[in-house]
Design goal:
six-stranded mixed sheet, alpha/beta, five-stranded antiparallel sheet, 19 strands, 21 helices, 724 residues, flat
Length: 724
């Protein structure tokens, strides 16, 4: 059974986290639930809650976004449904339709996307999906929240009669308005509405000349509002019909309300479900603000928070544009307790609170701002002793209160406990308080509890150094400037830098020296040794940082070269494809030229067609059968490749123009070789090597093996002489 006390939550300022989450909620019920969040008492429920938040957060990156879950509270409607002989108005019924439709939409969506959101779907699958509520209401109420005319035959008849009477009333009133206005009896505004009735705005001096019922007058008394005599009868008839209409509507709504009463429990479940989804959604929004993730939850007793941020400090600094320093801390069976020491204002307490708050958040079903490779187990209890905690009500001093708290720790501590104690042992005589703190720490150690404490006591630092499963740690300080670096270093106790800090703040050296004489020499030497070790480590840290920077630069250069190599490889492949394509076209062109020349000489069409069909059949045998769509895609790909290659070729040609000019000059200076039949040659800027078959009038027929071509001699480049 997992139990985390309210004191622990207060010490870690968990209520501020809840306020932040409540601000992200869309509904009032969701906000109320968010403010009541506490750590889960069951690992199974916690696992489901964490997965739901993780899935909801991941939905922001998916194409399938979870539908809107916003709704208006139906608590009032549910109360009315629970009272006999009451009925819901049309506006109340529209809320029931809205919440039913919202739930149905989410249930259908999660059913369709079970693979993406397995845990959210599992929770939703407990709710029945029904359109009966919507269908019952929409038969009676329209989309504007009004009862439909055809809700009953009586209502349809009454409303038709109302329209007829209303039309007669308007016609009669219009005639009187025109007549009295032409006589000049009416004010500029001509008409108005009093008690939902149209009235004439008659100038006071003519009120006796207009027949009808006086319904009132203006504030100044200059206008008298009169309902014309001719319309009075229609008004009375209209009022009677409207009363009859209301009676029929009430009857219809009562009947509909009675039909909805069996769904009270389902409607309660719908509202509960949507408010729960609202809390899950707000947790995921808060996780986005913090760049929070779900660390690996392990059954082993292990806590490894890498690059952990204090959520409240992170958001505050982010708003100010300041940097927040993350901490990395690890607890396991071989290192159960960490003793953090060092001067004040170095970040010891913040580190302690960061670990505690993140653990409580995680056990309350929230994602936390740590590196994704972090690991955490679930503790049965998290015990804290942070801050002054002086109790005025109970007349307890700080030390008395802390002793009372330590007694509580002794009752609760076991191997499934995480304890966090700030300034352990303070509040009493340093030697006696330190000795008592050491005794407490030994008991926590023997019970195999996990914990982090901060202290200035040397005996606790020495104890951490002596026990195998306890580790010293300190918050790093710049040894020269004594400025905090806000970075936790494991494996070494921290110096308090008491005299160094005093000297930096202008305390006379003579006074500091006097103080040193009053302290045991061994303690000063111990503290000085720690300070020296920290200075040496600071130097090593800088060297390591420099080496890491160089290593990173080397890695970046390696990556850049690999990308360049890959790009060059792609270019070569593109050129090869283009070259192969061109060679094929040249071959086909040569074949067509040969059969054309043959036909020119012998004029034999059949032979021409046979030769041509052979070429076509050979080429078709190389082709794969493709659909029209596939051919279009292939052509588009080929076109794209060709365009890219052409662009690259143009760029390369531009770059090589100057090189060509230089090469031409060099070639001109070289002694010219007279080409002969049988010499191996290639075209200038070409790669394929062929043999000269014939030479005639400055042209040569070059045989490339699979084809021959006519080329100008000055376009050829000598490769090697004819083999004898």
């Amino acid at each position: 059974m997992i139990r985390i006390s309210k004191k622990t939550l207060d010490d870690l300022e968990f209520d501020t986290i809840l306020n932040h989450i409540a601000e992200q909620c869309n509904t009032d019920l969701g906000k109320s639930k968010a403010l009541q969040i506490v750590p889960y008492s069951s690992k199974e429920l916690l696992h489901i809650a964490l997965q739901e938040v993780f899935e909801y957060k991941s939905s922001y990156l998916n194409d399938s976004r979870i539908p809107n879950h916003g709704f208006d509270s139906i608590s009032k409607e549910i109360k009315l449904l629970n009272i006999e002989n009451t009925f819901l108005e049309a506006s109340n019924l529209k809320r029931l339709v809205s919440i039913s439709r919202t739930v149905n939409e989410i249930l259908l969506f999660l059913k369709k996307n079970t693979e993406l959101y397995p845990f959210l779907h599992k929770t939703s699958s407990q709710l029945p999906l029904t359109k009966e509520i919507i269908n019952l209401i929409e038969v009676i109420v329209d989309k504007f929240g009004e009862v439909k005319d055809n809700a009953s035959p009586i209502l349809l008849r009454v409303r038709k009669e109302i329209n007829i009477v209303q039309s007669k009333l308007n016609g009669s009133f219009g005639k009187d308005l025109t007549r009295y206005n032409s006589l000049g009896y009416l004010d500029e505004i001509k008409e108005s509405v009093v008690d939902n009735r149209r009235v004439l705005a008659v100038t006071a001096m003519y009120r006796r000349k207009v027949k009808g019922a006086i319904m009132g007058n203006s504030k100044t008394g200059s206008i008298v509002y009169i309902e014309p005599e001719a319309t009075l009868q229609y008004s009375r008839e209209l009022s009677n019909l409207q009363y009859e209409e209301r009676e029929e509507i009430v009857k219809i709504l009562k009947d509909l309300t009675n039909k909805l009463r069996p769904f009270i429990e389902l409607l309660e479940q719908y509202q509960e479900y949507l408010s729960d989804i609202d809390v899950v959604s707000s947790k995921s929004k808060y996780a986005n603000r913090l760049n929070a993730v779900l660390p690996k939850i392990t059954e082993n007793r292990e806590l490894t928070y890498k690059d952990a941020y204090h959520p409240l400090l992170y958001l505050t600094n982010k708003a100010k544009g300041e940097k927040t320093h993350p901490q990395t801390i690890s607890l396991d069976q071989k290192n159960r307790i960490i003793v953090i020491s060092g001067p004040n204002a170095g970040g010891k307490s913040i580190t302690l609170k960061t670990i505690g708050l993140l653990q409580v958040m995680l056990q309350s079903g929230m994602l936390i701002p740590v590196h994704e490779y972090s690991r955490a187990c679930i503790f049965d209890s998290v015990l804290t002793d942070i801050g002054d905690n002086q109790s005025i009500e109970n007349h307890l001093s700080t030390y008395s209160y802390r002793l009372k708290n330590m007694n509580y720790f002794l009752k609760k501590c076991n191997n499934r406990t995480l304890f966090l104690i700030d300034e352990f042992g303070t509040g009493s005589d340093p030697e006696l308080g330190g000795a008592l703190a050491e005794a407490f720490l030994e008991i926590f150690y023997e019970r195999e509890s996990f914990g982090i404490i901060t202290t200035h006591y040397a005996n606790l630092k020495m104890l951490a150094n002596e026990l195998p499963n306890m580790t010293n740690a300190n918050m790093l300080f710049d040894a020269k400037t004594l400025e905090p670096l806000f970075k936790l270093y494991l494996g070494e106790a921290g110096s308090s830098f008491t005299f160094e800090v005093a000297q930096k703040n202008g305390i006379p050296y003579s006074l500091i020296n006097k103080a040193k004489k009053k302290v045991e020499r061994g303690k000063i030497r111990f503290d000085k040794s720690i300070a020296n070790l920290q200075k040496e480590r600071s130097k090593l840290q800088k060297t390591t940082s420099s080496l890491k920077t160089k290593e990173q630069k080397t890695e970046e250069e390696k990556e850049r070269l690999e990308k360049t190599n890959e790009r060059i490889q792609r270019k070569l492949e593109s050129y090869q494809e283009l070259y192969d394509s061109n060679q094929r076209m040249i071959y086909l062109g040569q074949k067509l030229d040969d059969i054309s020349e043959k036909y020119f000489n012998n004029k034999k069409k059949r032979e021409l067609i046979d030769e041509f069909m052979k070429i076509v059949q050979v080429e078709n045998s190389k082709r794969k059968k493709q659909s029209v769509k596939q051919r279009a895609v292939e052509k588009a790909k080929e076109k794209k490749v060709v365009e890219e290659v052409v662009k690259k070729v143009k760029v390369i040609r531009e770059k090589k123009k100057e090189e060509k000019k230089k090469e031409e000059k060099i070639e001109q200076q070289k002694p010219k070789i007279t080409l002969k039949i049988g010499d191996r040659v290639r075209m200038i800027d070409g790669k394929s090597v062929g043999t000269i078959d014939t030479l005639e009038k400055g042209k040569a027929v070059v045989n490339y093996g699979i084809f021959t071509t006519n080329v100008a001699v000055d376009q050829l480049e000598f490769v090697e002489p004819k083999k004898k």
